[in-house]
Amino acid sequence: KELLDLSYDESLRLESLVDNILTAAKIESSYEFNMEAANISELVNKRVKRFKNLNPERHFILKADTCDTIHIDQEAIIKVVDNLLDNAIKYSLEGAPINIILNSINNSVQLQIIDQGAGIDEKEKRNIFKKFYRIGNEDTRETKGTGLGLFIVKEIIDAHNGHFIIENNLPQGSIFKISLPI
User: Fold this and answer.
1) What is the rounded radius of gyration, in angstroms, for the C-alpha atoms of the chain?
2) Would you call 126 helix, strand, or coil by DSSP?
3) pLDDT tens for residues 49-58?
4) CB atoms near residue 182 (< 10 Å)
5) Burial of 76 (0-12, 13-18, 19+ CB in 10 A)
């Protein structure tokens, strides 16, 4: 059972890796976003529920207001939410909660994913949106990844005329804030 669990986890990681590589290539060449009216509250709820099922040992706290329907490419926004939740899991301590807040503010929908991980050094914040950029030293890094996740998130949010910022979560961790126009 342990070997099967490890194999399953590794296959999910590889699937995510391949998906991110293909998405980054599409975004750079000819990806056409399919904008349609969507219920962002339902979308976020479903993604959080999926991550809870896949990671039962993690503690997710979702505070989601019922938000206005907005025009988005649902598949692209799913990639955004998945990448941010995946990062929160990778870089947070095992018992620390991951908070997800969704609400409407000033003609926009704001999504915040808040972790209590190591945080991101101010010097690194300007580089983390670059393709293939990863924080730290390859020889000592413990988390697996390609450095494509935040690049993809930024490109998708920019294509939606939104904003994406990263703030420090005191005393430790990061707050990933996305704002999409209604």
Assistant:
1) 16
2) coil
3) 999 998 999 9
4) 14
5) buried
145/17 Cα distance (integer angstroms) = 7
| Partners of 37 in beta bridges | 71
Instruction: List the beta strands (DSSP E) in 35-122.
Output: 36-39, 59-64, 69-72, 97-105, 108-114
Measured over the CA atoms of residue 159, residue 160, residue 166 and residue 167, the dihedral's sign is positive
Token duo for residue 104: 């409407």
Report d(CA 91, CA 118) in Å as an integer: 7
Reading the block at residue 116, the tokens are 């209590």
According to DSSP, the β-strands at 59-64 and 97-105 are parallel
| pTM beyond 0.70 | yes
